[in-house]
Task: inverse folding
């Protein structure tokens, strides 16, 4: 089964009202003709309203968010719910990003709860996983990725990955300019798909596995030649419309030729 690639921009803690309007306008112009790749942007939640308004009238670019909370309503100061994200038309929701695991001490179990909340709400989880540089050097990459995936499988069953997205983001590659090589990334992606296939081949065949970590307009095309790399989660290079557009078009080209 051919998987439709997904390229998603993770804006992190960047932007303003004006920046959001301008970047979305630029993306709409650059990406108007894209057909063979799903595209999403995850601005800071503060700017979902601006992004939703700016995206109106097109269907190429979907809206996303960078986090969600497990509770739907009530006395949870500072939290943002699945229903609120839906209210703004957000569809693809990043969870388990290494920056949240590190700075907000989010555990595998807590992230699995977020995964469940998103599935219950009909939203698409984009589950970030990946190892630190020390874990990589200690040969623990597969163990770490398996543990992070198993937390979801243990809580929700392997079928939870139907219609979901995994972003493999080696932490040593995030924001460092030091992307994993296509062969390195492919090896881990194949491991991840195989790990899921051990529970369900059908689920493994359809799950989208993005690569993330210093993807840019110069290295994207080669990454997308790898069979188990189904797109990218892009940080820094998603803040400029021309660079992000090159990455989207590289995925479209590589996966439809
Ligand atoms: P980067 O970030 O592309 O700036 O390395 C990727 C991410 O953290 O999602």
Result:
């Amino acid at each position: 089964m051919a998987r439709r690639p997904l390229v998603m921009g993770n804006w992190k803690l960047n932007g303003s009202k004006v920046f959001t309007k301008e970047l979305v306008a630029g993306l709409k112009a650059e990406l108007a003709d894209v057909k063979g790749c799903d595209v999403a942007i995850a601005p800071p939640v503060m700017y979902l309203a601006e992004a939703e308004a700016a995206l109106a009238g097109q269907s190429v670019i979907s809206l996303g968010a960078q986090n969600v909370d497990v509770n739907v309503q009530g006395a949870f100061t500072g939290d943002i719910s699945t229903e609120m994200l839906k209210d703004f038309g957000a569809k693809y929701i990043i969870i388990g990003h290494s920056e949240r695991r590190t700075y907000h001490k989010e555990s595998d179990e807590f992230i699995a709860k977020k995964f469940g909340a998103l599935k219950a709400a009909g939203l698409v989880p984009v589950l970030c996983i990946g190892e630190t540089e020390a874990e990589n050097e200690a040969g623990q990459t597969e163990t770490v990725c398996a543990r992070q995936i198993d937390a979801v499988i243990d809580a929700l069953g392997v079928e939870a990955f139907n219609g979901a997205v995994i972003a493999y983001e080696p932490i040593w590659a995030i924001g460092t300019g030091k992307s994993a090589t296509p062969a390195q990334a492919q090896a881990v992606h194949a491991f991840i798909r195989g790990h899921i296939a051990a529970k369900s081949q059908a689920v493994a065949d359809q799950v989208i596995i993005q690569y993330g970590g210093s993807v840019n307009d110069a290295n994207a095309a080669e990454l997308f030649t790898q069979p188990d790399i189904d797109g990218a989660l892009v940080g820094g290079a998603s803040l400029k419309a021309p660079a992000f557009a090159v990455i989207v078009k590289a995925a479209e080209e590589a996966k439809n030729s």
Notes: Residues 10, 169, 174-175, 212-215, 233-237 surround 2-phosphoglycolic acid (CB under 6 Å). The chain has one domain: 4-177+188-233. The mean pLDDT is 97. The first strand starts at residue 6 and ends at 10.
